[in-house]
Amino acid sequence: MIEFHLDSRSGVSPYQQIVQQVRHALRLGVLEPGDQLPTVKDVVATLAINPNTVLKAYRELEHSGLVAGRPGVGTFVTASLSDAPLAAQVPLRRELERWLVKARSAGLDDESIEALFRDSFRSASARDIA
Amino acid sequence: MTWMAWRQTRTSAFVTAGVLLVVLIALLITGVHLNNEYTAYRHCLSLDCGVLRDRVAGSYSHVKLIGALLIGGPAILGVFWGAPMVSRELENGTFRLAWTQGVSRRGWITTRIAVGALETVVAGGLLAFAFTWWSKPFDLTSETRMAPAIFDQRGFVAVAYALFALALGVAASATIRRTLPAMATTLAGFIGVRMIVQFLVRPHLMTPLTKISALSQRQPDVSFLFRPGSGLRLVADSHPQLPNAWALGAKLVDSSGHGPSQGFIAQACSALLHISPSSPSPHRKLGPPPPHIIAATGQCIHNVGLHFHEAISYQPESRFWAFQWLESAIFVGLAVALLGLAVFWVRKRIV
Amino acid sequence: MISALTATGLGKCFGRKWALRDCTVEIEQGRVAGLVGPNGAGKSTLLNLMAGLLAPSEGSLEVAGNRPAIDEEQLGRVGFLAQDSPVYASLTVADHLRFGAHMNPRWDRAFAQERVTAIDLDPKQRAGKLSGGQRAQLALTIALAKRPELLLLDEPVASLDPLARREFLAALAAYVAEHGISVVLSSHLVADLERVCDFLVLLSAARVQLAEDVDTLLARHRRIFGPRRDLDRLPSDLRVVWSSHTDKQTTAVVRTDGPVLDPAWQIEELTLEDVVLAYMGGSAEAEPPARPKLGVAR
């Protein structure tokens, strides 16, 4: 069983935060198939959020085939996200670290690096959408 | 809702019950003794029964003050139970709690009124009944139940006053919506209506009877009034007394019911008129009047008495219960009208 | 389908002053609707109208399928928690539960007992000596234990400290999750309602400025900024809610059904608070009131 938390200043909507936290837990292996997610009532009572928000997040997770609801019992994890992507991460991370060294030697401070990354990320996603 | 209405008046109801219990015990203990004294007087065979009678009449003058509860109690009840009933809820905001539960406003106000009225009738009825019983020896020896201040303390009319006071309080509470002004209005209104009924309405509840009696020189039935310009006027006794009756007023009448004319007085009392212009004595305050004035006065009364009698209008003791019913009906009628207004106001006119 | 709230041309005036005007809103059953707006915007008036404590001056109003406070059954269907949670100061907590039980035919005694224990209230305590948070919890207990279909809360958390605020909203949300009732609650702070609401009604100057599903609302509003330019030449599907210009830059909050495609603009997503502030800032500007408020006040 995991517990959710919400960052109200992140700008990410609560339902997306829940989805992300479940995916994150799946990716890190904290949640495995067969594990139960907290009930809607429990989540709502700890986070003081709208029940529909939790339902919506669970529905989305269900849609992506990660969890399944069993009426009257709860919501259970049915799939895992932990193996393949984890292996792919290693070379990517190395590449990114090399790029960071390059950026620093070019005179960029942390803030500029972050701004550059965020901007490139956004324009790349915009191109994908278009 | 009944539970809530009871719960909200519980504390004051307990206090009232406590006071009432003490009063009833005091009345019971003294009343038994008083009745024994009265029985002794009734079975008196000796010559100085008057002493026993006076002893009954003069005893327990301090306990008699309990009767003031029957006069003041209704006002207190109207002010402290009636006047806060709606306005306190409005002032504290609790009406938002009370009027959004599964009981309609109509149910809420009628139940609160019903519980208040029931408590009023029970407490007022007990006190009125007990005090009426306790006062019986006085009524049979020295007091007239029809007399204004006594009438209110006997029978059940005080219960009707109390219901009226409660209704007035609730109506003021609902329409004014603020407790203190509602309390002041209730007190002023209650005193006002009681005075109006006592002095203007009650004397005419039934047509007064008239007692005709001859003018007597021994009793000061007639007083004289000089008015500059209009000469002498005769005024009948302004506070006539009759045993076992409530005397309302007296006037001089001849056999056809008319009062004496100016001309007649001028003629009958010429001796008196003869003195008056030259002497300021009628306005004198101290000492007995000089002999020649006494003689002239006696002459005047004698002459007037040849043609005129004193007519005292009064309500007899035998009408006591009829008057209790009539006056109670007036106050209960007013109470019902005021409660109707209060219910309407709470349902339709508040917030 | 019965709506939690159907208001048509609803208005209420006190003397000559309109506290609420032209209010046309529909809220579906099962929603948790937030009623936001500055103080004096008409939030309390709307809630008191819904609770049947006020009578409308014009227009019509139905809550939970019937006119407010029309009969005792309707009164039982709607729970109301008034501003500052009024309770009877001289009555104890237990007395309040007895009050609720006597006043409501559908009263859930077990639930009320359980909740009083859960929130750690002493049944013998006089309500007048409770803290603000405890009083609000007691009033909420009464409003919930009557088993309403629709719960109305007027500024329920305004007087509470952050912890009590959180506990109150958590209790409310948990109840909604379990029983699926409709809720309308007001606050002058959007932050209080952001998490718990899925529908938003924005009131300002006695009028409804916005009434929409929160997700739709967030999806349709964007902040755009870029080099200074004239906003009149924006595409017709973009409507400007709020704008600000400096000599070099233009910033605007726009409402749109599709994506903003113009590459000259940088685009940001908005929080609920951003959207609300944009609308309130917009209404405070010297724009003619005749300008339609983007057609969202349906």
Give a written overview of the molecule.
The complex is a heterotrimer of chains A (130), B (351) and C (298). Chain A is mostly helical and 130 residues long. Chain A is 59% helix and 8% strand. Chain A has two domains: 14-77, Winged helix-like DNA-binding domain superfamily/Winged helix DNA-binding domain (Arc Repressor Mutant, subunit A, Orthogonal Bundle), CATH 1.10.10.10; 84-129, no CATH class. Chain A has helices spanning 14-27, 40-47, 51-63, 84-105, 110-129, and strands spanning 36-37, 67-70, 74-77. In chain A, a hairpin with a 3-residue loop joins strand 2 (67-70) and strand 3. In chain A, helix 1 crosses helix 3. The model of chain A has no long low-confidence stretch (mean pLDDT 85). With 351 residues, chain B is mainly alpha-helical. Chain B is built from 13 helices and five strands. Chain B has a three-stranded antiparallel β-sheet with strand order 1-5-4. A two-stranded antiparallel ribbon of chain B has the order 2-3. In chain B, strand 2 (222-227) and strand 3 form a beta hairpin. In chain B, helix 1 packs parallel to helix 6 (105-141) and helix 8 (157-176) runs antiparallel to helix 9 (179-201). The two termini of chain B are 21 Å apart. Chain C is an alpha/beta fold and 298 residues long. In chain C, 31% of the residues lie in helices and 29% in strands. Chain C is built from nine helices and 13 strands. Chain C is elongated, with a radius of gyration of 21 Å. Chain C starts with a strand and ends in a 14-residue tail after the last helix. Chain A binds chain C through residues 6, 8, 11, 13-14, 40-41, 44-54, 56, 129-130, and chain C through 32, 166, 169-174, 176-178, 191, 194-198, 215, 218, 259, 261, 269, 271.
